[in-house]
Amino acid sequence: MSTNTPVGTAARPLRIAVVGSGPAGVYAADILTKSEAVKSGELTVSIDLFDRYPAPYGLIRYGVAPDHPRIKGIVNALHKVLDRGDIRFFGNVDYGTDLSLEDLRTHYDAVIFATGAIKDADLNIPGIELDGSYGGADFVSWYDGHPDVSRDWPLEAKEIAVIGNGNVALDVARMLSKHADDLLVSEIPDNVYRALKDSPVTDVHVFGRRGPAQVKFTPLELRELSHSKDVDIILYAEDFEFDAESDRQIQSNNQTKTMVGTLTNWIAEQPEDHSELTASRRLHLHFLHSPVEVYDDADAPGRVAGIKFERTELDGTGNARGTGEFVDYPVQAVYRAIGYFGSSLPEVEFDHSKGVVPNDGGRVLDASGTHVPGIYATGWIKRGPVGLIGHTKGDALETVTYLLEDRENLPLAAAPAPETIVELLENRGVQYTSWEGWLALDAHERSLGEKASADAGADGIQRERIKVVPREDMVEISRGGVAAEV
User: Fold this and answer.
1) What residues does 161 pair with on adjacent strands?
2) All structural domains of the chain with their residue ranges
3) Collapsing DSSP states into helix, strand and coil, what is residue 465?
4) What does CATH list as the number for 14-118+342-432?
5) Which of 170, 183, 271, 333 is within CB 3.0–4.6 Å of 276 for a Cys-Cys bond?
6) How far, in Å, CA of 486 to CA of 484, rounded?
7) H-helix or E-strand spanning residue 195
8) Is residue 301 within 8 Å of residue 319, measured between CB atoms?
């Protein structure tokens, strides 16, 4: 190809790599292809999407509870984008291991990092390191069949505390309390089903630091709790405190109004004597509790035996302050679900206090605060793990807008031909997967579900799919090998 060929033309498209194939990465790629410059024919782009996992969709496959009611719709939307054929997918390619930043800059004119956030935010209280204390994100990875985590999880506790009042906390609490048979209609992996089936849990307690009007979960997540069979939801009148800011939020925010209305209806309908509740499992929702200490006891040193909270009160602004009153709950496991935290990327500046790549509207910055030409970020690695899926589209639009503004001044790739990145991966022995490979894996998982449904008979539970968990099996199936037993 002539070095004089104009960049951004059919003969020499603008080459863009997107690292991360969750919603943030897919939306960025999609917005690029639908930009006015591309639609008008002024610009031609060629986009490759990389992911460290053999399958696409990122957080949607490995960070959302399998029974989440919106998961199918989101997956279908992402599938439609990638199934068009104008965006190449390379799975099982780990940035920093299989490809370096120099590799990407050699083959692409611009790079967008959309690697998200998968680690738990820290909760710095005494005893959080005891056996039986877990990160909610780690538990989510396990029950979603993440290929890089153990297939075993210790489900031995009868009484469990979940710390947090966001969607992940409710997902964790619902998965811990829901009966395993009711999850079979989802894509739950078999090893997860068997472990949850044997769980001895009777009580799951969810604790929030502020009041009912300040919760961070959504009405959809809250309603989903009430759909669990043979699980009673218990609330406590002393936790229902509303200050001036709470009243303002209830009046001005329909979501807050809906959630407070749902919670107050539930507490009004429950019997005063909780012993009248008959379900075999109970899910307790507590507010105005700030965790102070996780502790063990003499009978089981080094293992969680309980958790201490300070009761809080609202201060008039919607924030909470301690009251000096302390309460203890005997539990044998604690799950912290107070948020995610981003992971650093090799050769890219990182803000370790915020868990993000420093950036200005998606333009990645170096240590001096100067934009690194051709390097961009979007999604949680850009803004931190806040906001819902819908926020990710606006976030990607901002990043893509800046990239397109910069396109005349991008550092051009030395080897932009699409086949050169394939040759590089093959020469390094990287067992990358493709979109066609994902379609094969998708069909295989669905066939496992069909077989299980057929074995269950007409009156049995119909399973749409059974997720393949081991990375090597995912790669083998995706690359056309013999399907492994799951």
Assistant:
1) 205, 334
2) 14-118+342-432, 119-339, 439-478
3) coil
4) 3.40.50.720
5) 271
6) 6
7) helix 190-197
8) no
SS (H, E, C) 5-72: CCCCCCCCCEEEEEECCCHHHHHHHHHHHCCHHHHCCCCCEEEEEECCCCCCCCHHHHCCCCCCCCHH
Residues in the chain: 486
Cα–Cα distance for residue pair 231/343, rounded to 1 Å: 36
Q: What's the whole-model pTM score? A: 0.91
Exposed e or buried b for every residue in 333-350, given b needs 16+ CB within 10 A? bbbbbbbbbbebbeebbb
CB-based contact 362:402 (threshold 8 Å): yes
User: Cβ(254)–Cβ(213) under 8 Å?
Assistant: no
Please indicate whether the domains covering 14-118+342-432 and 119-339 agree at the CATH topology level.
no
- Tell me the C-alpha distance between 18 and 27, whole Å: 10
How much is the pLDDT for 221?
A: 86
Low-confidence ranges of the chain (pLDDT < 50): 1-2, 482-486
119-339 — its CATH code? 3.50.50.60
3-state SS assignment for residue 315: coil
pLDDT in tens, 350-393: 999 999 999 999 999 999 999 999 999 999 999 988 766 767 89
pLDDT tens for 185-229 read 888 999 999 999 999 999 999 999 999 999 998 888 898 898 899
Task: Kindly report the three-state secondary structure assignment for every residue of 354-402.
Answer: CCECCEECCEEECCCCCEEEEEEECCHHHHCCCCCHHHHHHHHHHHHHH
Q: Residue 236, SS3?
A: coil
Alpha carbon distance 286, 205 (integer Å): 7
